[in-house]
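re the bet — no i am not wrong, look at it urself. input seq straight from the record:
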Amino acid sequence: MSKHTPGPWSVCDVATMPVEIRAGKAIVARIASGSQDRHADARLIAAAPELLAALRDLHSALSDVGFRFASATNARDSIVLDKAMDDASAVIAKVQS
């Protein structure tokens, strides 16, 4: 598994350019774009470690109960659950590569 800078990450100096995302004193990323969306982009990037942890937890929990859930529901629900699990697996793999 590849490593990333441990969280939490935070957005710093949002009134300046570039907007920085930091983990403590370390700069994780800078967004230099003049886009009005740069602050929203910075908040999304800063949330990445927490989002990844939540996705891993959810994937693990659904892996444990997914079979029982799929057996107790209709085929459409099972397909939706399988797709969500596949999507989550793909995102986790993308981060780890």
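see?? The mean pLDDT is 81. told u. also The longest helix spans residues 48-72. so pay up
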